[in-house]
Each structure stands twice: as C-alpha cells, then as structure tokens.
Design goal:
The protein is an alpha+beta fold and 337 residues long. 61% of the residues lie in helices and 10% in strands. Helix 2 (37-63) runs antiparallel to helix 3 (71-98). The mean pLDDT is 81.
C-alpha cells in the first residue's frame, strides 16, 4: 500500500483532512505560542509525509526478507519508531520556522506524537486490509488454477480410456470378418481407418460439433452392419444443422457400443437403436433385451461419458430404464465465448 503510484496525492489529501480537523477544534491554540495556519499545515504535511515514506522504506526491505515474525507485525513495530523520529524532526522544523530556540518541550512533542500515532495507526490498518485482500485474491486465484488443473487431469484420464476401449472392440469385429470375406474385410479396414482417424484427430478435443460426431457414427454404423446385418437397426432421427451444438467426442458411439454389448441382437429380435434430439438433449435409446449371460465388462463406457459431461456441462447425463427401453440423454454443449 505504501508504494502505490499516486501516494503523494493521498498524502496531500490526508494532510488537508487532518489540518481541517485540527483547525475545527482550535488548531491555532494547540501550542502556547502563536503559529501561522500555513506553518501548521506544513508541519502536519511533514509528519504525514515522513511517516508514510519511512514506512514505505521499511515495507520494501521486509518484502525482500523471510522472517518468522509476520511482516505486518514487524512493519507496525518499525512504524512506531518512525513516528518518534518524524515527530522529533517535525518539532525542530517548527521551532526553526517560528523562530523559537531549539529546546526539548515534552508537551509540544506529545501533541505532534498524538497526531502522528493516529495517522500511523490508520495507515497500518489500511495496509493490513489491503494485504489480506490481496492474499485472499491470490488464494482464490490459486484455488481456481488448481481446480482447472484438476479438471484437466480428470478429463485427460477419462479421455485416455476411449481409444483402447474402442480399438479392442473393432479388432474383435475384424477378427470375425477376416476369415469370411476378404473384400468385406478390406472395406471394413478402410472404414476402421476413417473411424480411427476421427478419434486421433479429436483426442485432444473436449467437444466436437454434433455434425462431426454423427458423420463419425455413420462410419461406425457401417462397421456394425458388416457384422450384424439385419440383426441391428440404427435409426438416426437427428436433423439439425446448427453449428453451435457440440457433444463430447465418441460419446454417441460409446453408447451404441454399450447397447450392443449388453443386449441380444438376432434376426428374430433385432436390436433397435434410435438417435433423437429433444430440447437441450441428444437422446440415444435402444430396445432392452438383455443377454442372459452378461459379457465381462470393465464398465468404462457409461461412467466415462457421465464423468466427461460432468466436467463439460451444468446439465446432468440422464439415464432411464423401462421394461422395454434403455435411454441415455446427453446434454448439448456450447463452445465457451
């Protein structure tokens, strides 16, 4: 506080305010000798200036040193010594100006000291308030930075789960095809390349446009149709062309993958997966026809999506289950502006 840029303006204002107060209570009668109002103001200005500047000097020295005692306490103790020095010099200056022989008069010094101690206490209080306000702001900033870093770390951990999970399942599909149809395998590999390119390009992205995700899902659906044929029906009823609508990368694909993983898909009972949009949500619903024997699951998929959206949106991922359908609603996202 003592080193602020416009401190001399504040010193002048504080001196004027102090002079007005003293004159209101009879400042010319403070001393038992006659004193001009201008001289009195000069003495007050000298006291305020001396206390402020000496405190600034001490404060700058303390800022460069580490001590066990709090710097505010040391500054206050040093400022008390500054008051003694400043008032002694101010009293000598007053004697010189008025033309009185220099001598020690305890009463005169007490008058100046009382004024200087009040000024010093006021300045130290303001300095302490500003000090703790700055500390609070710094703490809040550091807390916010740590929160952001923590969120980034959480998001990175969740995002890193996607690629191995997806690639493992695609290789399972390819291993089934490679012994049946060479041409189909070749086309499957080409589509797999397109799909995985999308994942690689967006592995650093927190969100992508809904249109990009749906294009990716179409490529992924080709891979699924190659394996399941008419046993799997994926119906996309989303017809939006709004650029600002965003989703977490591969979130829709992972929900489709989960539906296939946990449900029966046969010619007699095809698995229906429907994509829709309603208000602020993208809805992925599938017919509920659970497998009698559940596959071993790492339970990464849905938890991953819920975790990512918790970091990206104030709206929750809604999971609903009826006797015939399993429904997941993903909140639409927006890029920060």
């Amino acid at each position: 506080m003592f080193a602020i840029r416009y401190r001399y303006i504040f010193i002048l204002i504080l001196s004027v305010y102090s002079y007005a107060n003293i004159m209101f209570i009879g400042g010319e009668k403070l001393f038992d000798f006659e004193i001009n109002g201008l001289y009195l103001f000069g003495v007050l200005l000298l006291v305020v200036l001396g206390v402020w500047e000496l405190n600034r000097l001490v404060d700058s020295r303390l800022a460069r040193r580490k001590t066990r005692i709090h710097s505010l306490i040391l500054l206050f103790l040093a400022s008390v010594m500054n008051v003694f020095l400043v008032t002694f010099l101010a009293l000598i200056a007053l004697y010189k100006v008025v033309g009185i022989p220099i001598h020690w008069e305890l009463g005169y010094w007490k008058l100046l000291a009382a004024f200087a101690f009040r000024i010093n206490l006021f300045l130290n209080c303001v300095n302490a308030i500003l000090y703790f306000m700055n500390k609070l702001k710094q703490t809040e900033l550091e807390t916010e930075q740590l929160k952001i870093q923590n969120i980034e770390a959480q998001f990175e951990a969740l995002r890193n789960q996607i690629n191995p999970h997806f690639l493992f399942n695609c290789f399972n599909v390819l291993s089934t095809l490679v012994h049946k149809d060479a041409d189909a395998s070749s086309k499957f590999i080409a589509q797999l390349s397109n799909v995985y390119r999308y994942l690689l390009y967006n592995q650093e992205s927190k969100m992508v446009s809904l249109q990009e995700e749906l294009t990716f899902v179409e490529s992924y659906a080709y891979l699924l149709r190659t394996r399941f044929n008419e046993n799997l029906l994926i119906e996309n009823n989303i017809r939006t062309h709004v650029d600002w609508i965003m989703v977490a990368p591969a979130s829709i694909q992972m929900l489709i993958e989960n539906a296939i993983k946990h449900n029966v898909a046969t010619k007699k009972s095809p698995l229906n997966i429907i994509l829709e949009q309603q208000d602020d949500y993208i809805i992925i619903r599938n017919t509920l026809q659970k497998k009698e024997v559940e596959e071993i699951s790492t339970k990464i998929g849905l938890k991953n999506i819920i975790g990512r959206y918790k970091l990206l949106s104030n709206l929750p991922v809604i999971v609903e289950s009826t006797t015939t359908q399993f429904i997941v609603k993903l909140p639409t996202l927006r890029l920060a502006t």
